[in-house]
Amino acid sequence: MDTSRRNFLASISMLAAYSAFPLSSFSFNNSKKLRIALVGTGIRGTSFWGKRLVDAYSDILEFVGLCDINLGRLKYARAYIGVSCPIFVDFDAMLKKTKPDLLIVTTTDVTHHRFIIKGLEIGCDVLTEKPLTTDEFKAQEILTAERKSGKNLIVGFNYRWSPYNTKIKALLMNQTIGKVTSVDFHWYLNTYHGASYFRRWHGLKDKGGSLWVHKATHHFDLLNWWLDSDPSEVFAYGSLEHYGKNGPFRGDRCRTCEHKSNCDYHFDITKDQRLMDLYVANETYDGYIRDNCLFREEIDIYDKMSAQIKYANNVTVNYSLTTYSPFEGWRIAFNGTEGRIEASLDIPYNQKTRIDQAEMHAREMEQQAIEEANFEEIIVHKLWNDFDTVQVPFQKAGHGGGDKRLHDKIFKSPEVDDEYGRAAGSRDGVMSAIIGIAARKSIESGKPVKIEALTDITPTVNRK
Ligand SMILES: NC(=O)c1ccc[n+]([C@@H]2O[C@H](COP(=O)([O-])OP(=O)(O)OC[C@H]3O[C@@H](n4cnc5c(N)ncnc54)[C@H](O)[C@@H]3O)[C@@H](O)[C@H]2O)c1
User: Fold this and answer.
1) Structural contact between residues 208 and 196, judged by C-beta atoms closer than 8 angstroms
2) How far does the centroid of ligand 1 lie from the alpha carbon of residue 131, in Å?
3) Atom number, ligand 1, closest to the C-alpha of residue 114
4) Could you tell me if the CB of 43 is within 6 A of ligand 1?
5) Deepest of 129, 147, 331, 451, by most Cβ within 10 A of its Cβ?
6) How far apart are CA 51 and CA 430, in angstroms?
7) In what order do the strands lie in the sheet with 61-67?
8) Alpha-carbon gap, residue 419 to 20, rounded angstroms
9) Average pLDDT for residues 278-301, to the nearest whole number?
């Protein structure tokens, strides 16, 4: 194996373990590129882990195989990503034939574990999209497979990489408000982004584990990383009160719906050529309807979620997730022994310029968008003092600028020491998904759920 590729793989293993990176030189040459196979050629697989990698890193990596159960989408994906590698509807055949160095998993959440485990078993490193998985049994299977394989698993937690979230981490690491004792964390999805989850597979628990897992895994990962401790117990409430069976009417799909003119949620997919090519043109293969009715009776996830999370270091967190807010944004407050930190993003009443919510959703989802820089603020209020305002440069596109930084870290500069420990491995994947899994179990049982009962990971006061 040539030096550049060996260096890359060694760096991958360091990423997964989020250990300190040596400052040794790291450079690829053109003779041997990192061989990547990808399974799941949907929107995320074709854009962020597909076209963007080809556009930005073709000198150091190459796609050797693409796989999806939908042959039409697969053919479209190969052309969209701009590669000429073979395509496969049979995942095992892809692994056998292409023998990749790195497998990227971007399928429906409930299927991640199957591909992760097979990839590890045949000796690949694996990079999976969040959430790592959707229940505790699959989480344990993944942990066991990774330990047996000696290979490494990276979880693509992009939110950690946004400068705003990193600044919060820095303030907490520096004990700016002493020891943190409690947190209020509230996330608001607007009627575009929030609603989009109810139009497709995310609306079914057995596909995405509910938004407790699919969406909130991002938020729980931030909490675990910011607080640098493991969750120990979760108590939660949740209901479905807005979408699904609560709708005043329902139709087959937005395109043909007789309620188009009086449905506030009507979504005209025909105006988006990319979605037409990716999904609508390939409906005949698998019946995946991208503009499905969000008032379908079958929807069984929650649209209102609230939890209390206790951490091993005794921090208590009040968390909520709303899916039909008039605006998209979030608020967090950390109470500490020496003061309080307040942070929030995109709350319209705090903005200096007005934001159109539909346009904002479109820009966030368009992962090739030009990054528009501005400043966002964090309030640091020490006890017995006036408050200070910390300004952080911020980008709107690509999850607050996190997407690009995550890629650069993995593919461009994995050897550079990261004082904030932003790279995430299997333990981080499990410990974030497990809070959502515990929340679901708590709602079902009406009782608090102990994290230690769910996998063989014992929560520790200082996160490992
Ligand atoms: N980190 C982020 O910010 C972020 C953003 C978007 C999506 N994601 C994650 O990316 C993943 C994909 O999401 P998406 O929005 O692209 O979904 P999508 O529905 O557009 O794509 C999923 C693809 O997986 C394919 N698929 C499903 N089951 C399969 C199987 N058994 N074998 C092979 N292919 C299969 C589908 O045909 C589809 O093409 C999800 O896990 C999601 O949570 C992460």
Assistant:
1) no
2) 11
3) 31
4) yes
5) 451
6) 28
7) 87-88, 61-67, 34-39, 102-105, 125-128, 153-155
8) 8
9) 98
Looking from the CA of residue 74, the nearest atom of ligand 1 is 39
Q: Find out whether the beta carbon of 111 lies less than 6 Å from any atom of ligand 1.
A: yes
Q: Is the pLDDT of residue 356 over 80?
A: no
Which single residue is written with the structure tokens 């069976």? 245
Q: Which two tokens stand for residue 38?
A: 């990808």
Q: Using CA atoms, how far apart are residues 157 and 428, in angstroms rounded to an integer?
A: 9
Which atom of ligand 1 is closest in space to residue 288's alpha carbon? 37
Is the CB of residue 130 below 6 angstroms from any atom belonging to ligand 1?
Answer: yes
- Report whether 13 contacts 153 (CB < 8 A): no
Tens of pLDDT along 128-144? 999 999 999 999 999 99
The answer, yes or no, to whether any atom of ligand 1 lies below 6 A from the CB of 44, is yes
pLDDT for the residue numbered 355: 65
190-205 confidence digits (pLDDT tens): 999 999 999 999 999 9
| CA pair distance 193, 177, nearest whole angstrom | 34
Mean pLDDT, all residues of the chain: 91
pTM equals: 0.92
Q: Rounded to whole angstroms, how far apart are CA atoms 178 and 337?
A: 5
Q: Which atom of ligand 1 is nearest to the CA of 107?
A: 24
CB 162 within 8 A of CB 393: no
CA atoms of 409 and 173, how far apart (whole Å): 21
Return the exposure string of 419-431: e unless at least 16 CB atoms fall within 10 Å of the residue's CB, then b.
Answer: eebbbbbbbbbbb
Residue 4 above 80 pLDDT? no
One-letter amino acid at 56 equals A
Residue entry with tokens 């799941």: 40
